[in-house]
């Protein structure tokens, strides 16, 4: 089964830091053959918090998604965005 990284952004305090994070996160995702299914874009909140951004990255399996998240490359990306955004981040197994 595929593995998905799902990130629902609640608040983004710095667009500059978001751009820097996105570059580093993509490098990490590419290393683990991640495919961005959703990366920002137009959205409508129907229930819950109003989210300015949602990201979904597909990996070959759940364990690869975990390896991506735990990788030094992605941890470097996280360091960039730390303190500049509030988000809900999950790794989910799916089809």
Account of the 3D structure:
The chain is 38% helix and 35% strand. The protein has a single domain (2-94), classed as Alpha-Beta Plaits (2-Layer Sandwich), CATH 3.30.70.100. It is globular and about 30 Å long. The mean pLDDT is 96. The chain is of the alpha+beta class. The longest helix is centred in the first third of the chain and has 17 residues, at 15-31. A four-stranded antiparallel β-sheet has the order 2-3-1-4, covered by helices on one side.
Write the layout of secondary structure elements.
Layout (H helix, E strand, L loop, with lengths): L1 E11 L2 H17 L3 E5 L13 E7 L2 H9 L1 H10 L3 E10 L1
Antiparallel strand pairs: 1-3, 1-4, 2-3
Helix pairs in contact: 1-3
